[in-house]
Amino acid sequence: MMRTAVVLVILTAALALSAAAGILIGSVAITPGDVLGALLGSNDVNGTIIRELRLPRVLGAALVGGSLAAAGTLLQGLLRNPLADPFVTGTSAGATLAAVIAIALGAAAPIVPLAAFVGALAAVLLV
After folding, report:
1. How far apart (Å, rounded) are the C-alpha atoms in residues 68 and 76?
2. Which of 11, 35, 106, 109 is the most buried if burial means most Cβ atoms within 10 Å?
3. Cα 100 to Cα 119: distance, rounded to the nearest angstrom
């Protein structure tokens, strides 16, 4: 139990550090003081860069990464196989096949991801 707590603390610190780095580092050099001012409501150019570009990018990356980790854990738990991943189970191949079929039939952009999702589900059901 103690080891799990230590690992969670380390991972939380790593997430905070990487989020701070993602907000601080960019093509426009912004000092940490300006970043803090932007997060607290400054309405200058730096505030716009931080609040409208960097912060959404960092939050989106954290959410997508967490979602992918949860999906992988669920897949491994569902199949009771610690080595299960979308490539081993054929989920990726099913999604790719359905997307290629949709593209070959001339489907537009909103239909192709839906077809890929249906193909992935079909592959999971077959497995």
Report:
1. 12
2. 35
3. 10
